[in-house]
Each structure stands twice: as C-alpha cells, then as structure tokens.
Amino acid sequence: CHPQLEGLCSFLQLSTCPEHLLVCFCSWLLALTPDLSYTSAAILAEQLFLRRVLSLTQPPSRHLMAALASFCSKYSQPFCRVLVAAVLQEPGEGAEQTKLVCELVEECLEPDCVRLVLSQVLEVPLSEKLLPVAQAVLGRQEVLPPELFDLLVLTLCRQAPAFATSLNYAKLVTAVLTMYQSQVS
To answer: Start and end of every Fanconi Anaemia group E protein C-terminal domain (predicted)?
Structure first.
C-alpha cells in the first residue's frame, strides 16, 4: 500500500500542515499498533519532514523539534536513511540543517543510529558542513565497530591537506585522538 500511503499523505497535505498539528500526528503515529513497517515509516519521514527540514533558514520551531524527536524515538532507522541522508548529501552550507542533525544525534538517536549517521557522513565527500556532524557523533562516545573506526581514521588522514586551516577539522582529529587513543597507532 505504499503508493496509497504517499497519495494519502499528499491528500492530507502532511508536508505543509501546521507544525503544531504535526506534533499531534506524530503522537498518534507512535500509539499505533502494530508498529509501522520500515518502508511506511520512511515514506512518512519523507512526507512529514523532508521538505520542512531542507527549507530551514532559521532554527526549527519547538513544535517541529518535538515532532522530529518523537518520530525519531520510534522510527530512527528509516528517519536516518531518508532525512539525515538527504541533509548530508544536500550541496551548500545548510547551516540550520547541520545544526538540526547535530542536535538529533546528541539528544534523540539510539546508538545504532548514531553509528549509521557516521557511516553516512563517511559515504559522501567530507566537507566543512559535515565536520560538526562527525564531531556530534564522537561526542556521544559510542563504541564504534572496528571497520567504521578504521574508515573514519582513513578518511581523516586522506582529507588532512584539504582541511589544513580548518578549526572544525582540528577539533575532530583531537576528539578522535582523545576518545580512541588506545586504538590509534
């Protein structure tokens, strides 16, 4: 019923509904049993949040943050695959989007999704915009699988010349060396 779900979202104009109603809708979604399928949750993440988040030019409202946090609490995998991936791949500065992803990483996402966000950061060319997201992930002090940690270190080493004057890059390298000093040789 995925085309029907997209059609229903369009019919209900969920992508443009007032943000206070978005909070109510997300609360209703969380109460559903059984839980939504992964695909249904991904469609809803896209329909409810993607346009709103990508168009942010100022910090999100408290209603939008509440809706995002509640949706993330139950459907964080599809949320990360749809919304966080889109934000990370969006060209340009995207300062508000980056801050939003950092806040979600720091406060809302489960450890497995925090690792997923780091793997998503490492899948795209590293940029000044992505450095704070990686820093937020490391700030959670989650145990990283060896292959993800190795990819992080390799990426940081390869990108060093491009970020020779970047304070964010220096902070990120310092965080890696501090938090994972026993793994760095």
So the answer is: 4-184
CB under 8 A, 24+ apart: contacts of 42-45: 42/78, 42/81, 42/82, 43/2, 43/5, 43/6, 43/9, 44/5, 44/9, 44/14, 44/71, 44/75, 45/71, 45/75, 45/78, 45/79, 45/82, 45/83
Task: Show the tokens assigned to 183.
Answer: 């793994």
CB proximity list for 104: less than 8 A, separation 6 or greater = 68, 69, 72, 84
Peptide bond preceding 161 in cis form (omega within 30 of 0):
no
What pLDDT is stored for residue 143 in this prediction?
87
d(CA 15, CA 162): 38
Give the residue with greater pLDDT, 8 vs 109. 109
